Amino acid sequence: MAAHPLPERGDRIMVMGVLNVTPDSFSDGGRYADLDAAVAHAHEMVAEGADLIDVGGESTRPGAHRVAADEEARRVLPVISRLAAEGIAVSVDTYRAAVAELAIASGAQVVNDVSGGLGDPDMARVVRDSGCPWILMHWRGHSDRMAELAQYEDVVADVRTELSARVEDALKAGVSSDQLALDPGLGFAKRAEHNWALLANLDALTGLGLPVLLGASRKSFLGSLLTDAGGAVRASDEREDATTALTTYAALKGAWGVRVHRVRPSVDAALVVGAIGRAR
Questions:
Q1: Given Cys at both, which of 14, 27, 167, 250 links 214, Cβ 3.0 to 4.6 Å?
Q2: CA–CA separation, 269 vs 278, rounded Å?
Q3: Annotated catalytic sites, by residue?
Q4: Is 185 left (phi over 0), alpha (psi -120 to 50) or beta?
Q5: Residue 77 — pLDDT band, cuts 50, 70, 90?
C-alpha cells in the first residue's frame, strides 16, 4: 500500500490533543475512561483547534504497570471507531502491533509508538502494510525500568544515534521514509537535565530530515522547575503556561508538532509563530 505522509499545515505546526482512556495516566487518569466522556473531550479539543486526537489505552508514566493487549484494545477501539466515523483524525498511542492493526482497521490514521518499534517486532509490518505514518519515539524500556535506564554519555548524541538506528530498522523492514517521524521521548528514561539538553539541541533531531514531534505537556521536569517558595513542585494541571512556552519554542525550532493536554493555548502560540514567520 502507498505511504501516507504525516499531515501538515501551512499556517502553523501541528497540535496533537492527548486523549488518555486509562485509569492511571499521570495527569488525567480516569477522567475519560467512559466512552461518551472520551468522545466529548475529543470534540472539545477539535473545537479548540486540535489537528489530531491521540488515543492511548495504557499509561506510560514512570512506574506505571503494563496492561494486557486485549484490555488496551478494549479501551481504545470504541473511541477510535466513534471519532473516525465522525470525521475526526485520530492517532493511536501504542507500542503493540496487534492493537495498532485493530486501531488502523477502526479508522486510526497514525501510529504513535512510544517504543520506537522496539516494543513489538511486528509493528514495522503493520505500518508497512497499512502505509500509515509511524512516529518513532526514543525509548529504552518500559515504565517500570525508566529510572535505571537514564544513563547517557552524551544525551543529545546518544538519542540521535539511537533514533537513527530505529529509522534504519524501519527502512530495512520496508517502511517508507515518508511514513516516519521522530520524538525525543522527553521524560522517558531521562532526568530533567537530559530533557533540557535535548530541548536546547533540538536541531540535532530536526537535522535528521524527518518531522519531529515534541511531547512535553505537563511533564514532571516542568513541575520541578516551577516550584514555589517552599520548594513544592507545581501540580500537573498547573503547568500549562510552561507547556505553551515549549510549544512556542518547538514552532521556532522547526518541529512538526506538539502533543498537549490543553489544546487552545498551544494552537494560539503556534499561530503567532506562524504569522511572524510568514511576515518575514
A1: 250
A2: 14
A3: 219, 259
A4: left
A5: very high
